[in-house]
Specification:
mainly beta, 22-stranded antiparallel β-barrel, 5-stranded mixed β-sheet, 54% strand
């Protein structure tokens, strides 16, 4: 029985991909606020006034006492951002973590992250598109186009955006249908035969009814060269005769996009001055390569007397031990001969050697052009009604995700293990809000319902003739999680005086979960279907299977906010507040055997203390915003990688840091942006084995993030248009890729610089750009996994190489 027969739906990652093209933004339907002419002339594209909806109503960015990095659609285009995670490039204390070699990515904000990548787990950094929640954490990666703006809100957002946002949220707002006819087409051609086409048509159908149709297509060749079956670093005489024949279709270059197609249609109706109705339907299909991992560098697990894995180190060039216990070699881990050593000194267990990973190449016997597949579709709708002095808003949303991943788990040329991950998830949400104002008081109350039905299967397998002594088997881990969440919320803002405003809010959430989990062990005798699961005949092999586990939970979560804003002048806002956020408990789905007591984990709670200011300087030519914070977590949900799966545990933690963001129009032609973030964190008493607990730092959380941009527009016209040139760059310091914080789990810091030149015709109807991303071709690791006990190496995914191209927009 194949997974294709059991799962239907649409993928989270693609969902988002479609979403960025699908729903529309939520306030003032069909009439996105225009930048003020004064701000634009004072500082160019960076000083455009940005209207945000962080508090469920339109406000100027500088009037909101929340740490927000907000970018308009014009700024996103100027920075050459094309995917959702590009937003992290220019945001202080915002970085990207992920899995599957970067085919799935998600945000880390102020060190808070979700490192359990199972599909049934929701992220602590919530992602929204047009006020609709993306439940599947892999949905945070998608292509951005036809975008109005993006808002990255830092810290718990419990009162108005309550869904699991203990670390923050990122909100993408897309363009609405317009009352006048308009349209655009953008075409890009870049390195590795990249082709990207996007466009939209928008305009009236009849009086009071308008429509918008948007679409995207893109493709690119793989940039990570797969040299299989050549063993690049090991002389032929030393190559082990292990692994048997490769899987059919394997050996493809990795990192490419075979096809990504998305379309969205919208209707916007205004039957009266007091009623607006918006509906949208969307579809997206994505096919890309297997995860672009490199099996580097070779590593050695350090084991204590109790058998605990207590450290991982980089293997020396002469290392022959498969593992080290109390200074002595442990060998024969994956060989019938217990006296066996590493086939090649300093290499993986099976002879693969890439000492430093500096080359953009890999040697994988299980790499495919279609190894990452997503599909999503759905519909959204919003009704806004004015009831005298009150405003009633209703938002309905349905999403259907399906995904199918398969890749080489050991990341080498040896036939050892593969990984397959499949998911089918359907979500429905309904929100009702009522807001209004009475004199000095502004308020909003509402209710929210969310239903998530997730069925997912992931795990490892070994093909026939595998180098693993027991070969020819599948080990699917089956998960069935149904979640129902009911919330009621409200927030008040009371203006005590012309300069002081008090803010208070509360949200109560009742959450119910129904969980089922089991792990099968299924013998396989043929390799002709190496990219899908077999589910029968399952046999109960000790250590390889998990009996059926079922459980139900129901809990009530309380989230609240108390804040004071002080505005001594029109150009300065000071704020200080305390927020309680929470995320419901859930269930692990790791590899067997997993004790039943370790499958459930508790809800987490955070108390956030934050203060900051927002200022407008130099007569509107500059904005300087800064904040400082301290988070006190109880039962922080921390995930440690345990070899071939993750295990979520609860541990107390604290996070603290500060950030500053500066944007300025230095002259009418020269603008700049500079963002700096610093953070520290500690997760306390994390269990790393029997009798071993340590204080550790969260993964993918750099101490420092720095980003900046300089943009210069030539004062004199060029060929009847305006020419702007810019450079931008971002830096992050070193990070751990595993909560264990072992020596070999640290990824070095890196910096990337980009350049762009854009010519725009005088009537703004034609735009031509030349760009270079990663100008200096820096090779840097972004994701890693410790598989030192599995095959004697680590998996790492690296950022894209230098990428140059041209864009034409009409």
């Amino acid at each position: 029985m194949k997974i294709a027969k059991r799962l239907n739906g649409a993928s989270a990652m693609i969902l988002s991909c479609v979403f960025s093209t699908t729903p529309s933004w939520s306030q003032d339907l069909g009439n996105a606020p225009e930048p003020s002419s004064d701000a634009s002339s004072a500082g160019g594209v960076l000083m455009d006034e940005i209207v945000v909806t962080a508090q469920k109503r339109e406000q100027n960015l500088q009037d909101v006492g929340i740490a927000i990095t907000a970018l308009s659609g014009e700024q996103v285009e100027a920075l050459g951002m094309t995917t959702s995670v590009d937003v992290a490039r220019m945001s202080s204390n915002v970085t990207v973590s992920g899995s599957f070699g970067g085919m799935m990515s998600q945000f880390t904000i102020r060190g808070v992250t979700q490192n359990d990548f199972n599909d049934h787990v929701e992220s602590v950094i919530a992602a929204y598109v047009d006020e609709t929640y993306i439940a599947m954490q892999q949905g945070q990666t998608f292509a951005m186009f036809d975008l109005e703006r993006v808002e990255a809100m830092k810290g718990p957002q419990g009162t108005l955006f309550g869904r699991n946002a203990t670390g923050g949220l990122v909100h993408f707002i897309t363009r609405r249908p317009t009352k006048e006819f308009e349209g655009f087409v953008n075409a890009t051609y870049g390195s590795y035969n990249q082709v990207r086409l996007e466009g939209a048509l928008s305009g009236p159908i009849t009086e009071g009814l308008s429509a918008r149709l948007s679409g995207l297509f893109e493709r690119a060749d793989g940039w990570l060269k797969n040299v299989y079956p050549q063993e690049t670093y090991v002389p032929p005489a030393q190559q082990p005769a292990l692994g048997g024949p490769p899987a059919p279709g394997a050996g493809a270059d990795l990192g490419g996009v075979k096809s990504n197609f998305a379309v969205r249609g919208q209707l916007l109706a205004q039957p009266s001055d007091r009623v607006q109705l918006w509906v949208a339907g969307f579809y997206n299909k994505f096919i890309g390569s297997s995860a672009p991992y490199q099996g580097i560098p070779s590593t050695v697990a350090i084991i204590d007397t109790a058998g605990n894995h207590i450290n991982t180190i980089i293997a020396s060039p002469t290392e022959v031990c498969e593992a080290i216990q109390n200074g002595a070699c442990i060998n024969g881990l994956f060989d019938h001969d217990l006296n066996a050593v590493r086939e090649v000194p300093g290499a993986s267990f099976f002879g693969y050697l890439d000492p430093n990973g500096e080359g953009r190449h890999t040697s994988q016997d299980y790499g495919f052009k279609n190894g990452s597949q997503f599909r999503t579709y759905g519909a959204s709708g919003k009704v806004s009604v004015e009831l005298g002095a009150l405003n009633l808003t209703a938002i309905s949303d349905y999403k259907d995700y399906w995904k199918h991943f398969f890749f080489d788990l050991d990341g080498t040329s040896v036939n050892q293990f593969f990984w397959i991950s499949d998911s089918d998830e359907k979500t429905f949400s309904q929100e009702l809000r009522l807001d209004g104002s009475t004199g000095a008081l502004e308020w909003v109350i509402g209710a929210y319902y969310l239903n998530i039905d997730n069925q997912s299967v992931s795990g490892i397998g070994a093909l026939p003739n595998s180098a693993f002594p027991i070969n020819g088997w599948d080990q699917p881990r089956l998960v069935d999680l149904k979640t129902k969440s009911y919330s009621a919320f409200g927030q008040l803002e009371y203006k005590v005086s012309d300069t002081i405003t008090l803010i208070g809010g509360v949200r109560a959430t009742r959450e119910k979960k129904d969980y089922g989990f089991e792990v099968l062990f299924v013998p396989v005798t043929a390799a002709n279907d190496a990219t899908e699961w077999d589910f029968e005949p399952a046999i109960p092999v000790p250590g390889f299977f998990q009996p059926r586990f079922e459980d139900k939970t129901a809990e009530t979560l309380w989230l609240w906010k108390a804040q004071i804003n002080y505005e001594p002048t029109r150009d300065l806002l000071l704020y200080a507040g305390v927020i309680q956020g929470a995320k419901a408990g859930s269930f692990n789905a790791g590899g067997p055997p997993l004790p039943e007591s370790e499958i459930p984990y508790k809800s987490e709670k955070v108390i956030s203390y934050e203060t900051g200011f927002k200022s407008t300087l130099l007569g509107g030519r500059a904005r300087l915003n800064a904040s400082a914070y301290y988070y006190d977590y109880s039962n922080y949900q921390a995930t440690r990688w345990t070899g071939v799966s993750g295990l979520m545990v609860n541990a107390d933690a604290h996070f603290y840091g500060a950030e500053a963001e500066l944007a300025a129009g230095l002259t009418n032609n020269l603008e700049m942006m500079l963002n700096v973030g610093w953070q520290k964190n500690k997760v306390k008493d994390v269990p790393l084995g029997i009798g071993i607990r340590r204080d550790v730092e969260t993964p993918f959380a750099p101490d420092w993030t720095i980003s900046g941009m300089l943009r210069y527009t030539l004062p004199q016209p060029i060929a009847g248009g305006n020419l702007a040139v810019q450079v931008d760059g971002n830096y992050q310091s070193a990070v751990w890729h595993n909560l264990n914080n072992f020596e070999a789990n640290r990824l070095p810091g890196w910096a990337v610089f980009n350049a762009r030149a854009t010519w725009t015709s005088e009537d703004d109807r034609l735009r031509v750009s030349l760009f270079a991303q990663n100008v200096f071709d820096n090779n840097y690791a972004t994701i890693g996994f410790d598989i030192s006990q599995l095959s004697g190496n680590n998996l790492e995914a690296h950022g894209r190489p230098r990428w140059v191209g041209a864009e034409l927009g009409v």
